[in-house]
Here is the input.
Amino acid sequence: MFPFPSKFPFKDMQAFFGSAYTGDIAKYVQDAVSKSVPFPAGMQSLKPDALKELLRTVQTKANDLSKSPPFVISMFETHDDVYLKIPIVDPAKLSAVKVRYSPNQAIVEGIPSPEDQHIVKLPALVRKKGASKEYRDQILQIKLPKAKTASYTEILIEDEE
Here is the structure.
């Protein structure tokens, strides 16, 4: 029935397929992977030692980031409000923080260092008035009430005669 029952499947594959198993199949798989996975220019020809060094560099940078986490302003919205959560570990830095906002974005200045400025696009339009703040558990929370309706301005277009 099947001519090689003792060698199929996966028993001594090199003997079953011969030299094609180690050379041609490996080359075919490598070519297929390199065509399907986009690599930046020059990455295809990296030697294993260069790849190990690249991995070591990435791990070192990841360890450095874990020592001082990046500054991230988180945001969420409810039916009525948009909330910004700003991490401030030292309460003494609260006086240096400035938060300004327009109907579609917020600007946070002075944190983590005095010269920093962060622009956050808001997920919904917010009203000009009614914002509130609360500092608790090393988080400054800003509450911005949503605008119920978008304000529109009409442009009158008349016939020119």
About this structure: The chain has a mean pLDDT of 79.
